[in-house]
Amino acid sequence: MMNIIFIVFGIIMVLWGAGKLTDGATSLAARMNIPPIVIGLTVVAMGTSMPEFFISFISALKGTTDLAVGNVVGSNIFNTMLIVGTAALVAPMTILRSTVKKDIPFTILASAMLIPMTLDGDISRFDAALLFLVFIVFMVYTVRSAKNGTAEGGEAEAKQMPVWQAIAFFFLGLACLIVGSNLFVDGATAVASLLGVSEAVIGLTIVAGGTSLPELATSVVAARKGQSAIAMGNVIGSNVMNILMILGATGLIHPMAIQGITWLDLSVMLVSVLLLWLFSFTKYTVARWEGAVLVILFLAYMTWLVIQAI
Q: How far is CA 205 from CA 44, 72, 302, in A?
């Protein structure tokens, strides 16, 4: 019971901390006269990936690397299949041209790069450096597109606050991310041990699901209001950052051994985004029936994981 409390309290701290850190960072960026669209495409986009980053980073430092990689792979599967699928069931999801032409192809590239990197059973510093290099290319391309006026969406309204408050929010959010991540990882690792379930399965399910809840809620609400295009871009954009930024940065600091993440897990991640890309070419929209296909495939995959874990 105590470990479950750690998991719940940890994820609440992580999500709340990510919000405060993002608010503080966007306010400081605005005071530095950085254009709102650039803030949205960089600071805010990275802020929404902070829960996954800190949980994966702390997991790697604690030696639970399967939890770290499972968190990223599982989050991408949740984002692409469950979040997009559920939102499309609520109302057909509109997709920005920039998402179809930039974010989804970069996600496919990142997923395709990750699969051969796992052949030797670990993500080395060299592998991580390659991932992080592609992440830098992605960010440079994104910011240049924004400055040239070709990027769609990404605008961010920074909350007006005094400098001292922005700095306080930034460091308070950072502290909550660190403490919450530690609690979450310790609780999840203990539960996995008690239940006899692998860290990889915990990462692919509980950890990934917990860090993806905000995106799920945001996307469903956006779909109901008919404002799904930017929400979709944010969800898919976070997939790019999950692999390239999170695994890249984490692997550079601490190489990650991979034992419990299987070819099926990585294949589901790649196939799901390929399927979404195929769906997106139909009038830049994910229809209800296409959303249903994504959700059914997600449930089938989760069922397989549970059966394998028992």
A: 25, 11, 8
Confidence at residue 62, expressed as pLDDT on a 0 to 100 scale? 85
pLDDT band of residue 159 (cuts 50, 70, 90) is: low
Measured in whole angstroms, the distance separating CA 223 from the mean position of its chain's CA atoms is: 19
CA distances from 62 to 56, 72, 186 (A): 10, 17, 9
**Cα separation values, 98 from 32, 46, 105, Å:** 27, 18, 10
Strand partners for 285: 94
Q: What is the mean pLDDT of residues 106-129?
A: 92
- Please state, in angstroms and as integers, the Cα–Cα distance from residue 56 to each residue in 22, 111, 136, 243, following that order: 19, 17, 20, 11
d(CA 41, CA 140): 11
Instruction: Identify the CA nearest to 181 among candidates 25, 18, 48, 1.
Output: 18
Environment class of 271 (CB within 10 Å of its CB; exposed 0-12, middle 13-18, buried 19+): middle
* Residue 266 Cα to chain centre, angstroms: 15
Q: What is the pTM of this model?
A: 0.82
H or E element that contains 94: strand 93-94
- DSSP lists the bridge partners of residue 257 as 122
Q: What is the pLDDT of residues 168-205, one digit of tens each?
A: 988 998 898 888 888 888 888 788 778 788 888 888 88
d(CA 94, CA 292): 16
Phi, psi angle pair for 262, to nearest 5° = -100, 170
Lowest pLDDT segment from 104-108, 246-250, 305-309 = 305-309
CA 228 to CA 54: how far, in whole Å?
27
pLDDT over 90 for what percent of the chain?
Answer: 27
Which among 147, 240, 209, 184 is positioned nearest to 59, based on CA atoms? 184
**Three-class secondary structure of residue 33 per DSSP:** coil
